[in-house]
Every structure is written in structure tokens, then in C-alpha cells.
Amino acid sequence: MTAIQVQGPPLALDPATRSTLLQTIVDCLPHIPNASEAERTAQREAAFALVERLAPTDPVEAMIAAQVVAAHYACVNAYRYAARSDLPYDLHLRYQAKAGSLSRLTTAKRRELLRHQAAQPTLPAAIGAARAAQAQATAPSVPARPATPAPRADETAAGQRPGSAVPAAAPTGREASPDHAAIDLLLAKAAAAFDPADDDLAPPTDAALAQLVANAHALLAEIAPPAEDMGARLQAEVAARAAGPATKLAA
Predict the structure, then answer these.
(1) pLDDT over 70 (residue 142)
(2) Of 8, 54, 94, 178, which has the fewest CB atoms closer than 10 Å, so is most exposed?
(3) Cα–Cα distances in Å, from 104 out to 24, 41, 68, 80, 97?
(4) Do 79 and 101 touch, CB atoms closer than 8 A?
(5) Distance, CA of 122 to CA of 131 (rounded, Å)
(6) Which one, of 130, 113, 138, lies nearest residue 62 by Cα?
(7) Is-above-0.70 flag for pTM?
(8) Alpha-helical runs (H) found in 55-205
């Protein structure tokens, strides 16, 4: 079988970083003993396609992208060993646990790469144009708003159609509609039924202030301390009541 020629993806990186990144990815791919050259070439092309989709634009992003690809293929290789029937069950469990850990690592590195790319102020022209085209292709289409028909020649100067008492043009500022008319009617009714006395935030009137002062004076009179001569009057009253029975006995 003729070997497939591998062509590296066009990345917005300096030549040294791009060459090192591609060579690192090739070295990190799992080695399958019985794989043919065509299968190994297809595996490299798939890894290069993944790198191209990650689109690293600087050495830091290239480092994270290499970690994403390496963790992904190591995870897939662990799942492949966990499915082998010639291995004991304990090794199956260990490979499954390792595959799960590598899967979480791949997701974490992918998020780290996205955060780093989002923090970049600008992108190279080729990468920016490609991402903009992809976003435009995947964006949902928004139906265009129908254009407002132009006024007809038979409309009168007052903005009314012949034989009609309703103006043809909507009032300026917003379009007239039944919903707006109903809202305006409700607001007008609420404004007519509004009583300032029901507003807790409104300032009090003079009559309300006078009533509050009178109530305060009444409360102060109820809790005021006794007069200074109250003690003397109580003592005199007690003495008079005590002398009353003695006078009756003497008589």
C-alpha cells in the first residue's frame, strides 16, 4: 500500500514553535505494534486536524494545545487497553480509572486554552477571519423586518386617506397599536384614581403635623412624673385618715 504523505496544518506560529509542536504531537501518539503505515499516517493527520481546530497563535497556546492532544490520545489508548480480553480484570479497572482521569485532564486543558485565547486582545488576520466566517455560518438566521410601505399618492395633506377619519401615519416616537392604547388607558385610570393620602412616601400636610404634635403632647402628659407637692398631699391624707378613728373613740 502506498504511504500517505502527511502535510502539517497552516498555523499562525513562528516556524520553530510550529515545527516543535508538530514533532511533539507525533512523538506523543500511542504506538500500536500491528498498525500499518497508512493507519499511522491517518492517525497523524487526525492529530494535526485537531491541532488546527485548536488554532494556537502563540507559544503558550501551542504548549496547551500539545497537552490537550497528548492527554486525549493517551485517554483513548487507556480505553483501548481496558477493552482487551487478554488482560485480567484488575488491569481493566486500572485502565478505566486512568482513562477517566485523562479525560478530565483533557477537558481542563481545553478550557484553559479557551480562556487564554479569550484573553488575547487581537488575533492574526487569518485566524480572526476564519473564526468570524465560522461564527457567521453557525449563527441562526434572523428574519428581516418588513419594510414600511410608502404613502400613496391619494392620501390627503392631513395624513388621512380619502373617506377615512383615521390618520394614515402612526404618531411619532412609536407605532400605534392596540397594546399601546390599552396601556395608555390603564395609566390614565391609575393617575385619576390616585389619592396622595395613600402615598406613604409623600410629605405630610400641615394638618397631619398638627395632629402628630397634639398626640405627642397627650402621651407626654400621661407619662409625666408627679408634681413635687404630691408626696406632702399623700402624707396629709394618710394622717387625716389615721386621726379619724381616734377622734371617734374619744367621742
Answers:
(1) no
(2) 178
(3) 21, 27, 11, 17, 11
(4) no
(5) 12
(6) 113
(7) no
(8) 59-82, 89-119, 125-138, 178-192
